[in-house]
Design goal:
This protein folds into 2 domains: about 170 residues, Rossmann fold (3-Layer(aba) Sandwich), CATH 3.40.50.620; about 90 residues, 2-Layer Sandwich (Pantoate--beta-alanine Ligase, Chain: A,domain 2), CATH 3.30.1300.10. Helices cover about 35% and strands about 20% of the residues. The chain is built from 10 helices and 9 strands. Strand 8 and strand 9 form a beta hairpin. The N and C termini lie far apart (about 50 Å).
Length: about 280
């Protein structure tokens, strides 16, 4: 497995692989890899011959007072996990190579990037779409894999790829969960044992939303309130939103529709967690 932080070396490796007839797949990450990330590698390997994982803690998607400095960076453990998963190459760039002095170009997807996560974390998605566009431009993969847990992020990335006519298939893989339902996240390691139990309130609230809708509840406001009430029944939480939205646009719903997505963001202690659930009503 090749490991490099150099753009020229990445492009040379990809060119060699293409000359051998390989299809190229990319899994962009910020490291601190867990089973959810490895599932993206496995999904990518089903489609291509050469899988490249990027590990880069992107400073431009963190706001003031967020966890950029303490974000986990266990590089050697991440590389071991990539080797075990059959990754062909890991790209580990340094900040100056991607954001040199005088850098001033940004990719901004209008509309959806200003609501929900975008409202809670201003400029977050500008940083996300910019770094993903840069990585896709450097690597120029045939396939790029993202996780469904970051629902709004993958929706924005798919729109960016469409809008910029990138010849890339974006694959969204299902959220990987712990046995008790907690969505896997690199930030889960911030949680104390007590907070880890409290964090189950997110998946439980999503269960409540789905069960309410399947039982015949027709009030969107009531479903959202039930999610919020469940989150607030726990100590040491600070919910930011519990909503039911259109799965493609994330716009507010005026009435129920066959396909919807429930989305939650809340702090548990000082750790901010998100989760979501696609909900299909019987026809």
């Amino acid at each position: 497995m090749q490991v490099t932080g150099e753009i020229a070396e990445i492009r040379e490796a990809i060119a060699r692989s293409r000359q051998q007839g390989c299809q190229i797949g990319c899994v962009p990450t910020m490291g601190a890899l867990h089973a959810g990330h490895i599932s993206l590698v496995e999904e990518c390997r089903k489609r291509v011959d050469y899988v490249l994982v990027t590990i880069f803690v992107n400073p431009t998607q963190f706001g003031q007072g967020e966890d950029l400095d303490k974000y986990p960076r266990p590089l050697e453990a991440d590389l071991d996990a990539c080797r075990a998963a059959g990754v062909s190459c890991v790209y580990t760039p340094e900040i100056p190579s991607l954001y040199p002095d005088g850098y001033g170009t940004w990719v901004d997807v209008e509309g959806m990037s200003t609501i929900l996560e975008g409202e809670c974390r201003p400029d977050h998605f500008r940083g996300v779409t910019t770094i993903v566009a840069k990585l896709l431009n450097i690597i120029q993969p045939d396939v790029a894999c993202f996780g469904a847990k970051d629902y709004q992020q993958q929706t924005l990335i798919r729109q960016m790829v469409r809008d910029l006519n990138m010849p890339i298939e974006v694959v969204v893989a299902p959220t990987v969960r712990e046995a008790d339902g907690l969505a896997m996240s690199s930030r889960n390691q911030y949680l104390s044992p007590e907070q880890r139990q409290t964090a189950l309130c997110l998946s439980q609230a999503l269960n409540i939303a789905e069960e309410s809708l399947l039982a015949g509840e027709t009030s969107i406001a009531q479903v959202e309130k039930r999610m919020l009430d469940h989150i607030n029944s726990f100590d040491d939480v600070r919910p930011e939103y519990t909503v039911l939205r259109d799965p493609d646009t994330l716009e507010e719903l005026k009435s129920l529709q066959p396909e919807m997505v429930a989305l939650i963001a809340t702090y548990v202690g000082q750790t901010r967690l998100i989760d979501n659930r696609r909900i299909s009503l019987p026809q």
